[in-house]
Amino acid sequence: MSHNHSFKHLSFLSIPARLGLALGLLIVALGTMFVILSLAQPGNPALDPPRNSHSAPLTTTVSITYDEPMDPTTVTSRTFAVHGMQSGLVTETHGVVNGGYTIIVTPTHAFHQGELVYAIATTQTTNITGTVPLAATQWQFNAGEITNRCVEGFDNISAALTGVEQGSAAWGDYDGDGDLDILLAGQNSSFVPVTEVWRNGGGGSFSQQSTAPTGVSWSDAAWGDYDNDGDLDILLAGYTGSTQVTEVWRNDGGGSFSQVSTAPTGVVITDSIPVSVTSPTVVGSSGAAITLTGSAPNFVWDVANLVQGEGGVITLTGVLNEPLAAGVFTNTAEIACAETEGDETNNSSDAALTVQNVAPVANAGNNQTAPIRTTVTLDGSGSSDANGDALTYDWAQIGGPSVALSSATAESPTFAAPGSETVLTFTLTVTDSHGLADPTPDEVVITVRRYTYLSLLHCNYVVAPDLVVQSVTATSDNVQVVIENQGNAPVTDEFWVEAYINPDPAPTAVNQLWWNLGDEGMFWSVTEDLLPLNPGETITLTYNDATYTADYSRVSWPLASGTVVYAQADAYNADTTYGAIQESHEITGGAYDDNIGNDTVP
User: Do the strands 137-143 and 53-56 form a parallel or antiparallel pair, or are they unpaired?
Assistant: First the structure.
């Protein structure tokens, strides 16, 4: 039996230069929520700024007001998303005001002049009783007042920009002065790929900035605040004349831009999986660019450049196989940066799995029949513990004349059988290494018999095996037959054991096949790999074990209560009248009854 456990644990925050790392542990918790009030689905939303507004302040908040109070714990940048086409997703403060009726987002950076902003209120928010809105709401608006809108045509303002072909251009307020600047890329009149930034000086004048990204033609260029620092950066793709490139250029201020490397930055995550976890596997990762460089069980990941607020999740799975010792199994992941950090106390995280201690199970062995004054061995070797703990043994006699065990704490103690016929009963209790005992001790019965050994001169003395059906146990879903050799010679030849289900009449002799006495029955084949069966030894047969012969068996499970099941040892041999084994009672003409036993399904 195995248990699958998924370690979803490597949730980490951004690691900019000289900023502290933060490694969090993603743990899924289950709880119970009691609903004491039911409200209608939120609807009738009121939007601010209004839909298609063209004059929202650059520092505007964004809100939606419903006709039901909303649960603030369901409001996040994913359930109420505000996205500027240049600023990107607003991840700052999300909450509710106005008695809970209004969901509001308060950006910490101003929007850019003329920026188009989308707002999406999803149905993943809920009111205070957990009811989702009637429908999702989406609207857009422009930030900053737009004046002198053209209604009758356009005029060339003669801005003296570089002429390009096979190119692209984008508006954006990269310097934050409230007016739109220009990013253009393409092939100029000299057939040279160029990429240029032109600053808006006002009054229709633009000046080219000296620092510019890689020149490309067949280009696509865009502004966007990828690092959420409040100014616009550049995304550029195209052909340099020799190769295709896609680059990100960070706005460093003052008209200066620097290319952002996507190569590993010295940020490394390690996770050495405990040896108790087999087949550890990386399911995947999300968020930041994370590259697996190590192999199980010692995983290593390189992390690409992270901006402030950026992070990711790595998901691992593994298997814990029984037996598994009780205790806490801890998986520890660590993150390290080549640069100096402000706080290294949060650079590791643990995911712990607690394995409970399970009580062991005592097994006192099969019931036995022993001659008087012989040595009898009890057998507790079948006892087990699901945690694999070492066991201690405690044997106690609870029935019959008192006998002395060789050791009451041994796995398999011995004792001398009394000199007269009797029945002895013992119990076995096992305890694991943590002191936890089996609450239900197992019981074993030893039947002591007197056997009469005749003189070698006695005419009826034979040396031969004697197969006996010691017991038949029938239940609704199983039949168990225990065969014992009560003779004075071993059984060395293979033989059949047959079970009869509701036979009519009951079997009384060899070669009475079950299909001649009823509709259902079973066969077991005791083959040479189970022989010899020495005097006093037993063989236990059950439905569908290795000896069960399905080709000669037919049973309709479950067996109904009251079903009578007979069993016969050495039941068939077409060439003889005594079966495969000529037993002592068959040689001496003794009774045949011991070869047949029966039981009734409770």
Answer: parallel
Residues 6+ apart with CB under 8 A from 344: 20, 21
Q: How far apart are CA 27 and CA 6, in angstroms?
A: 10
Give the neighbor-by-neighbor strand order of the sheet with 88-89: 53-56, 137-143, 116-121, 80-84, 88-89
Q: What is the mean pLDDT of each run of 10 residues along the chain (602 residues)?
A: 39 33 27 40 92 89 94 90 83 87 91 87 89 90 69 72 90 81 91 91 84 86 79 89 89 84 68 75 73 78 67 78 72 74 73 83 95 93 91 96 96 94 96 93 94 46 86 96 93 94 93 94 95 95 96 95 95 90 80 77 93
Chain centroid to CA 405: how far?
48
Distances (CA, A) of 68 to 41, 75, 131, 318: 8, 14, 10, 45
**Whole-angstrom distance, CA of residue 134 vs CA of residue 122:** 10
Q: What angle do CA 314, 315, 318 make, to 5 degrees?
A: 140
- What the block records as the tokens of 100 is 């809970």
3-state secondary structure of 178: coil
| Residue 588: how many other CB atoms lie within 10 Å | 13
